[in-house]
Write a structure and sequence with these properties.
Two copies of one chain form a homodimer. By secondary structure, chain A is an alpha/beta fold. Chain A contains twelve helices and nine strands. Chain A folds into two domains: 172 residues, Rossmann fold, CATH 3.40.50; 117 residues, 6-phosphogluconate dehydrogenase C-terminal fold (Orthogonal Bundle), CATH 1.10.3660.10. The interface between A and B is large, with 116 and 117 residues.
């Protein structure tokens, strides 16, 4: 594939930005990738790993002459970063972000973006439980969705170019209204994360079951919860604070639903439980058919060996 | 490794029994493996796949002359199976089971087991979201725990032999009181499964987010929930009905805990959320250090390729 932007600036050099750096380099999608992180150690790591060609002590320096600026900092830091870079943005440049909440980012960043600059919020729905510059890899976005939430009156050419970049990095791209995006991710990502955090927390302070037992015997479902609950605390704090309404709505529904199942257990209502569990199986089948996961048993942890 | 039992009978030929068959065959641990399943198709599959050397239309026929009988049927069916096989058990034989709840199995099976037969309940803490005779594989138990809950006055030699079998099939073996077992699994397995089922159910009947979107955009946490929620409905119905008290206790704690986090979100209490999420990370580290999971990102779904 060929170059899409001459100069890209990555602001924040964690899992997502480093993966973008690797993916752009793999396919030659950017002439130069400049990077900024607050920590000197992170900046040096980015250079040594090689997913940035230059690093800069300030975000303002990093964005100079950039055709594309990617804000990849926690959502709570987006507003301050936008204010810092605004005077240094090249006219005609595109600013995007990778935050998991879109309305809050638009409110925080939008007012700072100067007229001749295109602001196209984005959210790559990919990640792992690891964070930091060493966590990134070129294939993170392969076959995963990136959602873009451009303003209604936005520039079509700028949107087309950003969409091409994501596609060239391996992603499928969906265009969506920011409010709708925030509802969707509350269901498929934010609420499940909070629930996983909660279950791990419950296990943590159970007195009758010692912690070492929880850890030793975690092979079943709980292990998957701990993986989710190991994600970056700063990022998730900001997600919940900024997508508050949608998350609280889903949690309300979740409590109701759990109470119904809990009551079925208490009343010994086997048919109700069986029907419920049969229905959820169908959703899983849909996900495998949609190509969003593998049917390999246990995530391919154990390799079938019927010898 | 060498033969541990001359003749083993597997009653029920699903994921766990078929995996035991494969694992015993791999290491030559049983002279002959006899199998029984209610369905003729399942019995034929077991023969064709080759994890049983003979199959029998009744459980009574399958257990004749067996040195070890493994009850691998849903917990709700254990009592009836035990009653059916009781008159046909060989004196000195051992009966074990693989149910996820131990007190209920002891109550259902124990009274049927004749005096000269050893009853040693067991629970291999391993599985995948797949079920049936084609789901099994020889390495399912490798490095996973199997918990045995023998009676206090049980036969030490019989216990030692069963423990050797599990170890030879790759498992680590823990001996535990049945009541304590049921509390531990309520935390690490049963409650997390119910919660995953619930979250998938919530997503299923949300009107503002269409089902296809839930499926398309499931890459984040939700995908892991659907995997858990795809497990065998009959097995899980019986688990919740028979480990009722321990599960309801954990669910009560879970609601309280979730309400606390929910309140922190509503009040915008960032520090509380951050502290909570930092604490849960440590538990994840413990699980990786205990060898119960891999540190590979995203369960090794995506292969780091920092090229």
């Amino acid at each position: 594939m060929s170059r899409i932007y001459d100069r890209v600036a990555l602001i924040g050099l964690g899992l997502i930005a480093s993966s973008m750096g690797h993916a752009m380099r793999r396919h030659g999608l950017a002439g130069h990738v400049a990077g900024h992180a607050q920590s000197e150690a992170t900046r040096q790591a980015a250079l040594e790993i090689g997913f940035c060609q230059s690093v800069h002590a300030t975000a303002a320096d990093a964005v100079r002459d950039a055709d594309l600026v990617v804000l990849a900092v926690p959502i709570g830091a987006m507003g301050a970063v936008a204010a810092a870079i605004a005077p240094h943005l090249k006219p005609g440049a595109t600013v995007t972000d990778v935050g998991s909440v879109k309305q809050a980012v638009i409110e925080a960043v939008g007012p700072h973006v100067p007229g001749p600059v295109h602001f196209i919020p984005g959210h790559p729905m990919a990640g792992t439980e690891h964070s930091g510059p060493y966590a990134g890899f070129a294939t993170l976005f392969d076959n995963r969705w990136t959602i873009l939430t451009p303003p209604e009156d936005g520039d079509a050419a700028a949107l087309g170019r950003l969409r091409s970049l994501w596609q060239a990095m391996g992603a499928k791209v969906a265009i969506m209204d920011a409010a709708h995006h925030d509802s969707v991710v509350a269901v498929v990502s934010h609420a499940p994360h909070l629930i996983a955090y909660t279950m791990v927390g419950v296990a943590d302070h159970l007195a009758q079951v010692s912690n070492s037992e929880v850890i030793e015997f975690s092979a079943a479902g709980f292990r998957d919860f701990t993986r989710i609950a190991a994600s970056d605390p700063t990022m998730w704090r900001d997600v919940f604070l900024t997508n508050k309404d949608a998350v609280l709505d889903i949690l309300g529904r979740f409590h109701e639903e759990l109470f119904v199942l809990q009551r079925a257990i208490r009343m010994g209502d086997g048919p109700a439980l069986f029907d419920y569990f049969t229905r959820t199986r169908a959703i899983r089948r849909g996900i495998i058919e949609a190509g969003q996961d593998t049917a390999a048993a246990d995530f391919g942890r154990a390799k079938p060996d019927p010898a």
